Known about the structure:
The protein is 17% helix and 31% strand. By secondary structure, it is an alpha+beta fold. It folds into three domains: 1-30, no CATH class; 41-162, Immunoglobulin-like (Sandwich), CATH 2.60.40; 166-216, no CATH class. The chain has a four-stranded antiparallel β-sheet, with no helix packed on it. Strands 6-4-8-9 form a four-stranded antiparallel β-sheet, with no helix packed on it. Helix 1 runs antiparallel to helix 2.
Amino acid sequence: MRSYILKALARRCAATVGRLALACVIAVNLSPEVARAADAYAAAYVAQNVPALVEVFKPASASVTMRNTGTAAWIAAQGDVFLATQRPQDNYYWCIQDNPHGMYSGNRVLLPHDVLPGEDVTFAFVVKPLSCGFAATAPFQFRMLSQTHGTFGEETPAATIVVSTAAQFVSQQVPGTAPAGATIGVKVTFKNTTLSGDPLTAIRSGLPGRRRTRHGA
């Protein structure tokens, strides 16, 4: 976190000229309190296990492992340290299940146990995209969060997950036989079984409950 703050200040300094540059140089000398907090709360990404395909409104399991690289222990009973969704922070797109925390239920994963400096912790959780009613798309990306000191440590890499709308096969019409090399016509019908009229679903798959027929040759 300390290096993150210094880099952010350095970028601001680079954009200044003349007498403002002197003020910027002074600003990067962090107060002892801020420096101690930055050293105390730090984290490194270790690993993650995520599904390749998730259907909206359907549960899917995932896990993220982080390492406590700071000097402070993360104490579960204190309710201060979480794994939080990012970009934007605390977004509800993935709708994390079974981790109740007031207004933040759905965008934070509770600490499963105490984590001492140098130890790893695996957050195992279930996501249910769009079930929280927040439809803005967000990457599957997380970062550690202290309610006292803010976000800290490395972000997890953005995982490539295909979020698919739900669909049910209805019927198909294809010939029983076809000559070799012949061009034939086929018709396949699916029904959109998504439970909500999400705008992206309506555009790509037809409104919920409606059937979409594909013709091919």
